[in-house]
Amino acid sequence: MGEVMGAGRLARRVVKVAAAGVLHYSGMRKAMAAYRRSQSGGRRILIVSYHRVVEDLTGEMQRSIPGLLISQETLRRHLEEAAAAGYEFASIGDAVGVMTGRRVAKRDLCVVTFDDGYRDVYRYAYPLLRRMGVPAIIYLPTDFIGTNRRFNHDRLFHLVLRAGQRGFRPYFSALPGPALELLGPVFSGKKPLSAALDDFIGEHPAGVLLELIEALEQELGGGPDLLPEQGELMSWDEVRRMARDGFEFGAHTLGHTVLTLEPPEVVTREIVESKLAIEREVQIQVRDFAYCNGWYSDEIIAVLKANGFRSGVTTEDLPNRIGGDPFTLKRKVLWENFSIGVLGEYSAALTGCQLDDCFGVLGMSRPVPGRRTHSSAAVAASRLLGRSEGFGPKGEPT
Ligand SMILES: [Zn+2]
User: Fold this and answer.
1) Where are the domains of the chain?
2) The pTM is what?
3) CATH number assigned to the domain covering 7-145+244-361
């Protein structure tokens, strides 16, 4: 059940590494950067996104969602590589100013963002950024900050790993209806756990995820090892300390909620109250938002605009254009593997090609669109399913 690279993925990696080498050393990378620059309206505005920054990558890979991880060392190399590629590091506000024509940029801009407020960002990214003088914004799901809670995605990942380690085979009649969608492909080896989890989180609202977590914990017999140690969040003191050093904070809902799956009243509460929580705790003005899962809708953007926000970041891996919509900012979500060659070595050529979006220019990356139609009807249906027969603690009325 480990995250083994399949033959297809390995072949794609070989092609990318080879292409990166050619582009990097032939000077074509520079030509592609120039092409993107003119396409973007004269200046490139690159927004990169990270989640967790760790010291012991090998150890952390054994227990955490791989796509959320980057080592402190590789992050440092990314930042150096971005500077070498001609980017100037900028705050999100400056980037939005350039996009909307209120400011002029002398150079291409790179905005560094971190989603979710993981404590390891405070431990390993914060000192590095400060030393290098790189600004950054951290998007906080405020109900989790300053608590010992863990995100649903981290809990589910951990629980399914534990289930595998214990030789547990799911007994689906004892689990809520949608459990099969997650566990079926994983236990049959059809999908790596992280991919199955991504798909599952995209289809079910938070309530269904929680129900599955509780049912799995029950089935696995409880015990303290069912709650992951990893995935700790920042405390409000840590947030305040970073804010005092000039780092910015944006809202990322209250409960890390995928808003396109929720009804209007939940959307409004998650947006407004997460903004107010940061403003109250940190005494700063919050005007920037990150969509959970990268998904947004016209309704969500309208709520942001009505409540004093100036920007919303997606996870669409596309170039930003001057004159583009600041509520659908494109971002490149990066993690350790974006810079790792075929033999597991760090590749500067690969990193450089990622930051210059060479694979996007060549049509080798597949951007996932974040715009969704709002689907509260589907939500209602899946909630009913989630609460169907056989759910809840055994032998007790539910
Ligand atoms: Zn997030």
Assistant:
1) 7-145+244-361, 152-229
2) 0.89
3) 3.20.20.370
**Chain centroid to CA 43:** 25
Question: Which pLDDT value is given to residue 1?
Answer: 42
Distances (CA, A) of 295 to 124, 138, 289, 292, 370: 28, 18, 12, 6, 4
Sort 104 into a burial class: Cβ within 10 Å, 0-12 / 13-18 / 19+: exposed
Q: Low-confidence residues of the chain, pLDDT below 50?
A: 1-3, 381, 385-398
Dist CA 398 CA 394 (whole Å): 9
Give the pLDDT score at 380.
53
Among residues 66, 108, 101, the alpha carbon closest in space to that of 87 is found at: 108
* CA 114–ligand 1 middle distance (angstroms): 9
CA of 23 to the centre of ligand 1 (A): 33
**How far is ligand 1, taken at its centre, from the CA of residue 78, in Å?**
21
pLDDT of residue 70: 97
At 6 the pLDDT is 67
pLDDT at 5: 58
CA of 214 to the centre of ligand 1 (A): 21
Helices (H), 85-189: 92-99, 119-120, 126-132, 152-165, 179-187
C-alpha 146 to ligand 1 mean position (Å)? 16
Distance 139 CA to ligand 1 centre (A): 8
Given this model, what pLDDT does residue 318 score? Answer: 93
Q: Quote the ligand 1 centre to 202 CA distance (angstroms).
A: 12
User: What is the reported pLDDT for 372?
Assistant: 86
User: How far away, in angstroms, is 122 Cα from ligand 1 center?
Assistant: 16
Centre of ligand 1 to C-alpha 258, Å, is 9
* 107, two tokens: 């150079």
Compute, in angstroms, the gap from residue 116 CA to the centroid of ligand 1.
Answer: 5
Cα–ligand 1 centroid distance for 322 (angstroms): 26
Neighbours of ion ligand 1 (CB under 5 A): 115-116
pLDDT at 394: 28
